[in-house]
Amino acid sequence: MNETAIAPPSLHPHRQVEFDRSMRPSGIALTPGIAICQTDLPIDWYQAELKPYAEEYLALPDRTPETVLPWMDSYMVPALRELGDSVMLLAHFYMGGEIVKLVERYGGFVADSYALALQAVRNPGKTHFVESAVHFMAETIALLKHEHQSVWITNPKSGCTMEALAKEDMVLPVFRELRDRYGDDLLAIVYMNASGRVKAMAGQTGGAVCTSSNAKTIMRWAYEQSPRKKILFIPDRHLGENSGRAIGIPPDRMAHWPGGWDGARRRMAHLSAQELDALDRAELVLWGSFCGVHTIFRPEHVAYWQTRGYRVIVHPESPWEVVQAADGHGSTNYLWSAVMDASPGAKIAVGTEGHFVRNAREQAAQRGVEVVHLADIPDPSFGAVGCGCATMSRNDPPHLVGLLDLLAKGRAPELNRVLAGDSVDETTGWRERLDPRSQAEIRTDARRALEKMIELTEGAKS
Fold it and tell me: What do you get for the CA distance between the two ends of the chain, in Å?
């Protein structure tokens, strides 16, 4: 890979970066690629240090708990005994395969992105946090952690398709042009599903980070600033639009900016007079990224299940028309609670990530509650099935076992350590690490935005 393709010097004139060349993809590759929509563990790549654990796992005669758990126990139990209370295992609700159950089995904590972000803050006695989730979630913990704490991710290539359409080098040129035009009137809100480098942009404008559970609260705070601010919401256009509409921002006061490299290449000078006028009048500018898992949903899916007596609840990363048609919408924590609190005999269709729905279905069935995935409609004319987050599912048993075993032995791979500003290419596994000065800048700005989120969210709760 061309090194300058990750961080063009023109965008970062003062930064020095370090590349981990050990990350050439020389590990096991059982599949030529990873499908965007999938339902099983994608064992696609292992770094050299974890390859022996993967080979042992693949050599097991089957994948039943009777076989896998004793193999995991042989590593996990001694490692946890050695690390003692210094380590905390973490996982997100969306984790694929059985990793959520495995993290819980070994005493770990499973939650949504907001709760995960706070774990280092709320557990100052812990030294190591080992997360089975996506890189931006682990980095968020690293941005908030105490100096004596370290954060590790079981698979550094575990990324997010939404975040991949809002890399720093895509967003930064646009961010700079908007600040040049609107100055202090611009306030950025950055969704958790973004790197620390992008979160830092929120801090630079006096803005905040948000999650799906508090996006409406953060958006209302931003909208009520005096004098009125022009809000830039990054990266998810759907969560931004849904949150904006929820607090009363009309659609004709929202401007849409393309995501990905299309957005990076768009320039103010290229806008027509009409486009520039719409941008100037906009109260909310939406970066055009999205989640492929949540954009498969359509109002017809909602109507199908509603006419069959199901209550439909969806995640707010879904399009506005779907959120409007549903009976309820909210974060993963909201969706999980809605299912777990349902009365026996209830029927619920859930519009979110496939692995989450499968886990919810299994738990709900024990209490006589029927759960289906919103897109899993038997009528072939609908042409869609429920997607799992393939990138998050790259965290699997060998990654968890190998990292914890090596951490207990004092030989955890440096690539798996997560620091502020780290950027890992999801395709090749190469890491770009900033110099200490740039790390400190990212940490300061991003942490300011995260702390504003925490202040507003905890204030709303009380």
Answer: 49
